[in-house]
Every structure is written in C-alpha cells, then in structure tokens.
C-alpha cells in the first residue's frame, strides 16, 4: 500500500512547498517513505515551473530543509493519483472542489480533501487556515513554518492510525 498526499495552495510557492517538505521530513523520521509519498501543487498557474519563493526557501533552510520543488498546477489527474488532497485555506479548498467537479464530475469528500490546519493542535477555536505569507515579512514565513510543522506530525499520526502503518 502506498499513500499519496498532495498539499495545495494558490501559487505553490509559499505554503504548500513548505508543508510538503516538513511532512516529508516527518515521514522519513519514522521510516515510512516506502508507504507514504507527497507532492504539492497550485490552484492557479502564476508560477508554474518556478522554485518556491526565495523567502520560503530561506526560511526552510533555517530549519535544515532544502526546497527544490518546481511549482505546478493542480490537474484533474491528481484526483485519481492522490489519496489525500490537503488545502491550506478555504479559498483553495473551493478551487480544489471546482477543479475536481470540472475534471471528474464530483466534489471531493471531506475525508480525502480537507484543510491542513485541522491537524494543528494549537488551532483549537481559531480559523483552520494556514495564513498566506506572500505579502508579509520573515515573521509571517516563520509562522507558516511553525504551523505546517505542527500539522505534519499530527497528520502523520492520523495516517498511521487510520491506515495501520
């Protein structure tokens, strides 16, 4: 069994690449890379082929991560390839559902398509969105890193339990 996870944000240059890489690190730390793979994508085609935002890469490097992902757009094929499609915010969740409906004729079920921050143990009572740091400063990029890093561990716990990994 191979689980495939896709992290999605607007441009695939800030939130989803760092979510992908923090999750990949968590998977590797538990030696689960043979059963869990991940990738990231955008709901818009603004930055296709580009590396993540330099500020995202700088923040990742400060935490020992190197981002080499080249931005890509979510495609209809992704809905048959990935077991989970994880949105960073409500705007992207709506876009994911629209793309899914256009390409597959169905809306993705909330068991496989959901907001990543629902796995943030510190988000209780808060909006379940990972904020977009694009127009912010280095502290905003650090906040995103901290959120997705917390989510990575909790989401991985969920997958291990649910799929008996």
Automatic annotation (TrEMBL):
Example GO molecular function: protein tyrosine phosphatase activity
Superkingdom of origin: Bacteria
InterPro entries per UniProt: LMW_PTPase (IPR050438), Ptyr_pPase (IPR023485), Ptyr_pPase_sf (IPR036196), Tyr_phospatase_low_mol_wt (IPR017867)
Keyword annotations: Hydrolase, Protein phosphatase
Pfam annotation, one family: LMWPc
Record PANTHER family: LOW MOLECULAR WEIGHT PHOSPHOTYROSINE PROTEIN PHOSPHATASE, LOW MOLECULAR WEIGHT PROTEIN TYROSINE PHOSPHATASE
Domain Phosphotyrosine protein phosphatase I positions: 3-158
Annotated protein name in UniProt: protein-tyrosine-phosphatase
Lineage, broadest ranks: Bacteria, Pseudomonadati, Bacteroidota, Cytophagia, Cytophagales
EC number(s) stated in the UniProt entry for this protein: 3.1.3.48
Family: Belongs to the low molecular weight phosphotyrosine protein phosphatase family.
């Amino acid at each position: 069994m191979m689980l495939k996870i896709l992290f999605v944000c607007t441009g695939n240059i800030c939130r989803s690449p760092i979510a992908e890489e923090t999750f990949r690190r968590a998977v590797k730390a538990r030696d689960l890379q043979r059963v869990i793979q991940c990738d990231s994508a955008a709901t818009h085609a603004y930055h296709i082929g580009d590396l993540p935002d330099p500020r995202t890469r700088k923040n990742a490097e400060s935490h020992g991560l190197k981002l080499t992902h080249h931005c890509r757009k979510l495609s209809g094929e992704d809905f048959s390839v990935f077991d989970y499609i994880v949105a960073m915010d409500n705007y992207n969740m709506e876009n994911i559902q629209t793309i899914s409906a256009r390409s597959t004729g169905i809306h993705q079920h909330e068991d496989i398509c959901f907001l990543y921050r629902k796995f943030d143990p510190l988000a209780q009572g808060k909006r379940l969105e990972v904020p977009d740091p694009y127009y912010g400063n280095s502290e905003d990029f650090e906040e995103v890193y901290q959120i997705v890093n917390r989510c990575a561990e909790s989401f991985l716990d969920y997958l291990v339990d649910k799929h008996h990994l």
